[in-house]
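Protocol check, entry for the methods section draft. Step 1: assemble the input record (protein sequence plus ligand SMILES). Step 2: submit for complex structure prediction. Step 3: store the structure tokens unaltered in the notebook. Ligand used here: zinc ion. Step 1 record:
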Amino acid sequence: MPVEGIPDREKHGFCLVCHQWHDRSEGQMLPPPASRPLSGMFSAAKQISGLEEDSYFICDGCLRRRRLRQAILWGLFAIVVATVLILSWLKAI
Ligand SMILES: [Zn+2]
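Step 3, stored output:
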């Protein structure tokens, strides 16, 4: 549930997806998305060493929607791959 009033940075996190403040218990801190092949490796090294806080907050609702969207995309990808394999198998017969 979004925080109403003035948020406290110690207790609340700003969700970068829905742009609302939430209680820290209502979300997770995630590492930044890897935009380049090596950036994911560098950010993981930074987090392990504790040098820089690159992670960002995302609320449970947005996390659930993101996982559902990824599941749908992977499902569609699997259906397309299965269709191509079945069609190539039918052509071979
Ligand atoms: Zn959110």
